[in-house]
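User: Hi! I'm working on a homework problem where we have to compare a predicted structure to a textbook description. Could you give me the structure for the chain below?
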Amino acid sequence: MSELNINTDELIRASVSLFIVMDPIGLVPLIASLTSKLSMEQSIKVVRSTIYTASALLLAFAIAGHYILEAFGISLSSFRIAGGLLLLLLSFELLLKGWELKGNEISIGAVPLAFPLLVGPGAITTILISLERYGMIVTMLSVAIVLALTMLTFSFMHTLNRLLGSLGSLIVSRVMAILIAGIAIEFILSGIDEFIARQ
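Assistant: Happy to help. Predicted structure tokens:
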């Protein structure tokens, strides 16, 4: 029984950590504003594409994350810096002119919503740390739980979309751009700190 309790505690810790890093609640206003001009059917396709892509990325790194990075000779610190730079560029684009949702709903959901916003360097790093601390089973279960919670969270997007309206969506997208830029800077600085610590 104690072993079960320990596993349950580990599962809760792993799930909470991943949910906080992915922050689907914080992304709801952004996704709502970016899909405000799409039809209900198109918005649903965007959300599904986001979830499917995020699931594939999380499962891939949960199963073979270290091997993927090692195959390309990439350290976690370098991965954080690269992801931070990508997020920073995206935030500038969103702040200055807004993201033009070009392409179909699948490509929109994949980039930039699933990666790097929902599943970015922070989420991938959290997955790799969870693997080391708790093992494969707990990590995979935490991924499943967080993805289910993310789908539930995104289900409120349409209600928020109606409440925001066109002007509200514009304001939210610009505010989120600043927040994304801040997250990007944190990724870059933490990656630099890790790199310096290794020297």
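For your comparison, note the following. The CA atoms of residues 10 and 134 lie 7 Å apart. The chain has a mean pLDDT of 83. Good luck with the assignment!
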